[in-house]
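W.,

You were right to be curious about this one. When I first looked at the sequence I had no strong expectations either way, so I just let the prediction run and decided to look at it fresh. Below is the sequence, 586 residues in total, followed by the output.
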Amino acid sequence: MMRRIFLISLIVTLLLLEAAASPGRRTVAVAGGNDSLLQQRRPLDTAEAVARLQRDMGTIVGAAPAGTRLAILVRSLRTGRVLYALNPDTPLTPASTTKVATCFTALSTLGVGYVVKTTLESETKPRNGALPKNLYVKGYGDPSLSVSKLDDLCEQFLRLGTRRIDGDVVGDGTFFDEVNTRFAYSGDRDDPEPVAPIDALTLENRSYTVIVSSTSVAGSPCNVQTWPHSTAFTIVNKATVGPAAAPRRGRHSNVLAPEPNGVQRYGDRWPATQKETAQRTPRRKTTGTAERKTAQQKPGATNTNKKAAPLQLKRSGVKVDVTTESDGRMTITVSGTLPPGRTVSVRQPLRNAPLVIAGVIMERLLREGVAVGGRLTSGPAPAARKVLAETGRPLVDILRTVIKQSHNFLAEYTFRIVGAASGGQQGTAAHAVATVQERMNRCGVPFGNCTLNDGSGLSRRNLLSPAALVGIMGAAWTDKKIGPTFESLLAIAGVDGTLRGRMKGTPAAANLHGKTGTLNNVSTLTGYVTTRDGEPLAFAFMMNGSGGGYRAMQDRLGVRLASFSYNEPSAPPPAAKPATVPKKGR
């Protein structure tokens, strides 16, 4: 009896396994009847379900305005089967989905644990309380370097017991090359969004602050200092305390509200250097956008004028003049008058950052009693050197902001880090492009007809195909070392990032993970979505054209994929919504 029961159980098990393994057919248990007993439904054919999916997606994209260039690809990450394709190998302008290629390359070449560092280095370690060689402040591209991190470097150095530096204190920003603006190294003819210069060694968002305060005695000199303090700054104080200011009515657009500490900040914008201005192009109005014309000056050209335009604070009567001397130091001349008992802070753009940052380190060490026998300068560190102190920021933290918030400035930092880490300190951007292409070839991503000019996607001359984007998604998915991290960087529909307000209340919400891309007449979306059967899909939707409604179209495509099942009942294709003009964004 027991043997018969065993044989019957074995036969039933084998039959179930055979049914589950049959391609294109699934047995689904459904509730039915008054007693809610589970019954079996006749399985649907896989080809029929896929054909219906393709018809529905064709109906959705069929509503695109005339003249729209469409390229779409959807592939199963489990089986490799293509569920939908429309011009999958056609390269189109990707906008910010370019960041997918940049960040995937950064993760796969540098690793999940890579840290973007700033270090104190020398050719030798301190001996008997003295450093016989130069002390180098070396930057490796940390865009978030702050004064507190420099303080940490100094504390580490002091713990070595060093009380004297016989050599110079040198700022080294040569990890990147000198072509430091996206507009210059991309070779573009227009600049849809200006990106601040990208330097390997910078500080506090490329700025410092001149703080001017007055006593209560009219005619006495004002107190002037900088934050941070640096031995690269020489202050010439000609400012005096003026008479008490008469009360005035009305609002003054050049004065911001007082801060809690009593400091008033004048203006929320600061002047660019003439070099930075020359590398940008003047604005011209176009339909729906502000674009830029080509600059007359050649990309990367420098300006030899040493004196920056003075910043005049009309409300206070204080004027700040900054002059760069032949040795790179800056002379800060403050003149004018300030009413009694007042403090104003003037933010200035940071020029010659390596020298200034080395001066911050030097000033702090001098304040701690460390004697410096050499001078303050900037330049490359020798090849043979030892790390004495270091601080940094995890690369993943930068990439998370790049992808989820579509941060162009940090994307270009990532792009240049990739190029420099591959040995491209000279020609950083060109090395970054070569590294991306080499990585794509190694991972089997079809990249032969693709073009990259920058890392953010601001360049309209960038070209990617859906096959390339889906290929990157697939390569990341199958790489166990970086796959989970890469997916965590993507925005989540209806939850966060650039997809926070999209596809809410649909099967795609909290399901679809993706990267958006938007320029004028360009809208793209690529990422992952899981079907009702639990099947992971990689997709890329690319729309180039002057019509509207592209985001709504992408959302409907994403929802349809999230709703897909091989056992879904027959249903008419969804009706197409009228095209609408998409909101501006990334």
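Here's what jumped out at me. Residues 19-43, 251-306, 575-585 have pLDDT under 50 and may be disordered. And, maybe more interesting for your project: Residues 158 and 368 are 9 Å apart (CA to CA).

Coffee later to discuss?

I.
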